[in-house]
Amino acid sequence: MTTNPLGDLVASLGHAVVVTGTDTDVGKTYATAALTVSGWNVGRRRIAVYKPQQTGMRGGEPGDVDDVARLARAAGVPSEALTTAEGQRLTEPMAPPPAAAIDGVELLPLSEHVMKIVELQESHDLVIVEGSGGVLVELDGDRRTIADLAVALQEACGEPGGAAQTGRAAAETSGQLSSPETSEPVNAVERDGGTVSTVLVARPDLGTLNHTLLSLEALLHRGVEVAGVVLGSWPADPDRLATSNREYLADLPPVAGRRVPLLGAVPRGWGGAA
Ligand SMILES: Nc1ncnc2c1ncn2[C@@H]1O[C@H](COP(=O)(O)OP(=O)(O)O)[C@@H](O)[C@H]1O
Ligand SMILES: [Mg+2]
Fold first, then answer.
1. Where are the alpha helices (DSSP H) in 186-233?
2. Can you say which residues are annotated as belonging to the binding site for ATP?
3. How would you summarize the oligomeric state and partners of this protein (predicted)?
């Protein structure tokens, strides 16, 4: 069993990587762990994993970031190299808005997540952000999604060729901060080309082609810089369907004028899971 399923992939990604998926349970957490291992293997020594909304968890229960830490440690990433953080934890295993309503709490605004991630970027050389569910799941009380968070981060961290801005200033530019007391720029990000990449995690089985193309359309039409697709759980003994799907995903038709590559696959059972 390989302990670094995505090889040196992180070397070609930005310093912040947003991990989203075609659905829930597609292997985003496993892919996040594999990206962490890839990051360590290409020399990133301070890695942070951030989960904006952790739903379906009570108080001290281990969440996705704890699973990432366990898998990464098992693959040789030292505990000291990894910081894990959650934006908000909600009890019910539902989309954040109804889960927050049941818990009787307000959802954090998207700008808070942007600022937390920018802060993590200042002290780490790789920040991986795992979304909840699929691409268009709402993350805040304003119907913003992980696609909106990715775009806000791209603006906050300076898109390729663009001038780096402060996280807060970028959040203001994108209309996420409105109260007067938040208008003062803080957290200056002095990064040159501190870019943000988004990875879409997909299933290998029936239905994945449609879900993958739909998700890519949604991401690309919203201006998300999609680096490519990762298969979250690739079987040891793939059948004809899985093999054919993988071939198709490796040669996708252009979406929004872009050809999106298949970046790799996490073997099913990696990290000791069934
Ligand atoms: N590479 C993998 N190896 C083994 N099991 C996996 C793998 N990827 C996903 N799974 C299984 O699928 C479940 C969902 O994966 P997870 O990464 O938690 O999905 P997501 O984060 O997209 O909800 C896991 O609990 C595990 O049982
Ligand atoms: Mg997960």
1. 208-221
2. 25-30, 67, 130-133, 232-233
3. Homodimer.
Residue where the block lists tokens 């993988």: 246
Tell me yes or no: is domain 9-272 CATH 3.40.50.300.
yes
Domain spans in the chain, listed from the N-terminal domain onward: 9-272
Instruction: Report the alpha-carbon distance of residue 211 to residue 216 in Å, rounded.
Output: 9
Note down pLDDT in tens along the chain; length 274 residues.
569 999 999 999 999 999 999 999 999 999 999 999 999 999 999 999 999 999 999 888 999 999 999 999 999 999 999 999 999 999 999 999 999 999 999 999 999 999 999 999 999 999 999 999 999 999 999 999 999 999 999 999 876 533 344 443 444 444 343 333 333 322 223 333 459 999 999 999 999 999 999 999 999 999 999 999 999 999 999 999 999 999 999 999 999 999 999 999 999 999 876 6
Q: Tell how far the Cα of 173 is from the centroid of ligand 2, in angstroms.
A: 30
For 19, the token pair is 């991990």
Q: How many CB atoms lie within 10 A of CB 92?
A: 15
How far apart, in whole angstroms, are the C-alpha atoms of residue 46 and residue 39?
Answer: 9
